[in-house]
Amino acid sequence: MVVINPCDYNQTRAATMAIAEYEGPVYLRFGRPVVPIFTDPDQHFEIGKAWMVSEGSDVSIFATGHLVWEAIQAAEQLEAIGISAEVINIHTIKPIDEEAVLKSVAKTGCVVSAEEHNRLGGLGDSIAQLLVRNNPVPMEYVAVDDSFGESGKPDQLMKKYGLDAEHIVKAAKAVLAKKKQ
What we know:
- The protein has helices spanning 9-21, 67-80, 98-108, 123-134, 154-160, 165-179, and strands at 2-4, 26-28, 51-54, 59-63, 85-89, 92-94, 111-118, 139-144.
- The protein is 40% helix and 20% strand.
- It is built from six helices and eight strands.
- It has one domain (47-179): Rossmann fold, CATH 3.40.50.920.
């Protein structure tokens, strides 16, 4: 089954149109947090192909869903301290764009995955499995620890579970320290 997790309204709309033309089962995942609309309203959405948000050379940040916006903000904060982060929107978690992941990691040599999902069995694990088979590098996860979900306002829950730019920056710094060892 195809798993899609768009990052904003425009990408959700484009993904829905692509899904309508797709033959086979698709799970479209999106949540309640309000995020800025920052993608092109007339974008072409290709199932299984990642979107390079910004190029970088020090660390690859693979984000999905609402964490794409947080990754963009984290990359700006990292740039301010001299760290060049490549941000890639993995809007299709399954099938994952293996070529995009491997190409980015070959350049940066370390990874942060960012998702509003359990760290077990999500985007991060898919990336880790791909890297173990092809190019093992240091990796950090920004995701929900294996715990029961709670009710609350989306922004409060995202902060509680560490699903924000602050935690992406922290993970990038941690993975860069591992890379230098």
